[in-house]
Amino acid sequence: NSRGGASLLKDSIPITEFSASGPFEGHDLLRRGFTSVKNELLPSHPLELAEKNFQLNQDKTNFATLRNIQGLHAPLKLQMEFRAAKQVQRLPFLHSSNIALDTLRGNDECIGFEDILNDPSQSEVMGEPHMMMEYKLGLL
After folding, report:
1. What is the DSSP letter of 70?
2. How many CA atoms lie within 13 A of 60 on its CB side?
3. Which domain holds residue 98?
4. Parts of the chain with a pLDDT under 50
5. How many H helices and E strands in the chain?
6. DSSP string, 70-109
7. Phi and psi at residue 33, in whole multiples of 5°?
8. Sign of the CA dihedral 54, 125, 101, 103?
């Protein structure tokens, strides 16, 4: 019986011949899964990518200027200080303001969008403190 089933499979028509092709082809949800619209979107404005990478570009410019003025040691020292300031965090259930990092970058005296209207990523999220700490330490 198993040989008969195999011969039936050999004689069957491949499923690819049934699928439509061309500009009017529909998305086959069962075979390809859900489509992600976010991956297909292009930036809505030419300056959008520049705005997203503003702080990174600003840091690169400052490091290049600092290297030209003071030598290689100055940007390396500043990068080590940035890395140390990023590692200092509050407990997982409390939001960290990163005031040390803002001070190193010189943004502590600037008033930006997130200072007035608050950054959505900094919304108050309060959970069970013990559970969140155990998850961070890998005990759960």
Report:
1. H
2. 5
3. 50-117+126-137
4. 1-2, 4-7, 17
5. 9, 0
6. H-THHHHHHHHHHHHHHH----TTS----HHHHHHHT-TT
7. 80, -175
8. positive
Which pLDDT does position 98 carry in this prediction?
A: 83
Cα dihedral 94, 99, 101, 106, rounded to 10, equals: 150
| Entry pTM | 0.54
Q: How many CB atoms lie within 10 A of CB 75?
A: 19
CA distance 88 to 86: 6
d(CA 137, CA 131): 10
Q: Is residue 5 part of a domain?
A: no
| 98: its two tokens | 């990163």
Q: How many structural domains are present in the chain?
A: 1
Cβ-proximal residues to 78 (8 Å cutoff; 6+ apart), any chain: 63, 66, 104
